[in-house]
Design brief:
Strand content: 15-25%
Order of helices and strands: EHEHHEEHEHEEEEHHEHE
Strand order of the largest sheet: 4-3-5-2-1-6-10-11-9
Helix content: 25-40%
Radius of gyration: 17 Å
CATH superfamily: Acetylglutamate kinase-like
Oligomer: single chain
Largest sheet: 9 strands, mixed
CATH topology: Carbamate kinase
Distance between the termini: 30 Å
């Protein structure tokens, strides 16, 4: 497949999207909602058609959350490995949805599962992106005790992404939970140091520090808003922008 030309209006050439496993549930309480898969695939198709190279890190909380199992008494390493396997299931579902929408997609796992997906190899992942394929990174970092937020930050840095998008259920970062506080204020812009100092629930601290120290800009958007991710890669003021505050970022 010939790589698409980069659209003149796209500010970012290569992006990584962090999707939580819960995002795939739609309005359900568990599992994978086919309609939600279709909507995500359509949004990603818009970005690819605009000439943007798209990669994704997917969580597994809709099927199995390692930290929750560990809190219930299970060995933490075993629980985290189960959570990693859940992300592989979600990644395969995304791959299928992308291919049904006319996109080429590859699942790359940090755990070796050669019969159903590729091993994660950084240079191969970059080559897939250069060829116009959507790359879905599964199994987190492949190590227990690390969240998929940390995996997303790591992969974004490794593939030299220009922007990391955290697709959530809210339209940015707030100083309080907007579902519980009518006075919650949304930020248009934050520095990573401010996120750490104010203990804002953007990502875990390890993920935030990785992005800060490597000048990786992050935009937090509401994935339920049609076209939100496309507007983010076009450089519009969608959601909340977080960066390290240096000229090299954003």
């Amino acid at each position: 497949m010939k790589a698409p030309s980069i659209a003149a209006t796209a500010r970012y050439r290569r992006v990584l999207i962090k999707l939580s496993g819960e995002a795939l549930m739609g309005r359900g309480d568990y599992g994978i909602d086919p309609a939600t898969l279709q909507r995500i695939a359509a949004d990603v198709r818009q970005m690819v058609d605009a000439g943007v190279q798209v990669s994704i890190v997917i969580g597994g909380g809709n099927l199995c959350r390692g930290s929750g199992l560990a809190a219930g008494g299970m060995d933490r390493v075993t629980a985290d490995h189960m959570g990693m396997l859940a992300t592989v299931i979600n990644a395969l579902a995304l791959q299928d949805a992308f291919e049904r929408n006319g996109l080429y997609a590859r699942v790359m796992s940090a755990l070796k599962i050669n019969q159903i997906c590729e091993d994660y190899i950084r240079r191969r992942a970059v080559r897939h992106l250069e060829k116009g394929r959507v790359v879905v990174f599964a199994a987190g970092t492949g190590n227990p005790f690390f969240t998929t937020d940390s995996a997303a930050s790591l992969r974004a840095i490794e593939i030299n992404a220009d922007l990391m998008i955290k697709a959530t259920k809210v339209d940015g970062v707030y100083d309080a939970d907007p579902a519980r506080s009518s006075t919650a204020r949304r930020y248009d812009y934050l520095k990573y140091d401010e996120v750490l100092e104010r203990r804002l629930e953007v990502m875990d601290a390890t993920a935030v520090v990785l992005c800060r120290d490597n000048n990786m800009p992050l935009r937090v958007v509401d994935m339920s808003r049609p076209g939100a991710m496309l507007r983010a890669v076009m450089g519009e003021n969608e959601g909340t922008l977080v960066d390290s505050g240096s000229p090299a970022s954003a």
